[in-house]
Specification:
This protein has helices at about 75-90, 210-220, 225-230, 240-255; strands spanning about 10-15, 20-25, 30-45, 50-70, 95, 105-110, 110-115, 130-140, 145-150, 155-160, 160-170, 180, 185. It is an alpha+beta fold. The chain folds into two domains: about 1-40 and about 55-180, no CATH class; about 205-255, no CATH class. The relative contact order is 0.14.
Length: about 260
């Protein structure tokens, strides 16, 4: 069971490519926008009403914002540590230049990989998308309050909820566009199917799910975790009255009578 009723595999994950370090957050998404921009060079010609347009490229950028909630003081401290790790991914890897003392040079820039389900995913490898971020915004939701304690250097504050956001600029790692093969046009990269780029989709339709598959796919990841919470919260699991109350609450969550 995941944090606050979110499945453990429903994560937004960032990887720092130079070091291989990664950090994942439960996917409490506030906003997700995937933008595709085509660039054209337009040249005006004397006496011609329309410009002559020459295609340059198509770029993709993903804007994502997500909440990082805490249901306890421990969670809030762990969340802040994870946010610290994420923000450290904005920095490159350095190496000593020719072994000189104190002289350093950038060895690798802070490229990242980001993944979220099938929506943010490399269509050929199944891994995260490669790219860079312009930066992260860390926005503590002060209206939700903060945990606090006295630390060695004074008062320490740990937000109960933090809103994070970034814009991720994608670097494509495979060929894009079409080529002619016989009498039809196909993607240049044969690992990509037209129906699975840029968003992967399994071939089986929801209507083809078995009853068990449907339950696992829809219920297990959502309300079932709330049911576990209801049962675990029973003051005495051996008390018949508490058991009956827990079963009634679980049935209500499942929409039963």
């Amino acid at each position: 069971m995941g944090t606050l009723g979110v499945r453990n595999d429903m994560n937004l994950t960032f990887e720092h490519v130079p070091t291989g370090k990664s950090v994942s957050f439960p996917a409490y998404l506030e906003n997700l926008a995937d933008q595709y921009d085509s660039t054209w060079m337009a040249e005006d010609v004397y006496g011609r009403m329309d410009p002559i347009a020459t295609f340059v490229n198509t770029r993709r950028a993903i804007s994502v914002s997500w909440n990082v909630p805490a249901d306890s003081f421990d969670d809030a401290k762990l969340n802040l540590q994870k946010i610290n790790n994420l923000l450290s991914f904005l920095y490159p890897v350095y190496s000593n230049k020719s072994g000189a003392q104190g002289a350093t040079a950038i060895n690798q820039g802070p490229l990242l990989r980001i993944s979220f389900g099938n929506i943010i995913r490399n269509s050929t490898t199944g891994g995260g998308l490669l790219g860079w971020v312009n930066g992260f915004t860390m926005d503590p939701r002060v209206e939700n309050g903060m945990f606090h304690s006295q630390g060695p250097n004074g008062m320490e504050y740990y937000p109960k909820t933090v809103l994070l956001n970034c814009e991720f600029n994608i670097l494509h790692e495979h060929e894009l566009g079409f080529k002619k093969e016989g009498n039809r046009y196909i993607f240049r990269n044969k690992k990509i199917e037209q129906g699975n780029f840029p968003y992967y989709s399994s071939n089986r339709l929801p209507s083809e799910d078995t009853e068990t598959d449907f339950f696992n796919r829809t219920v297990t990841g959502g309300r079932i975790s709330q049911i576990d919470d209801v049962i675990a919260a029973a003051p005495d699991g051996n008390d018949p009255e508490n058991i009956a109350a827990s079963e009634a609450a679980a049935t209500e969550l499942l929409g039963g009578d």
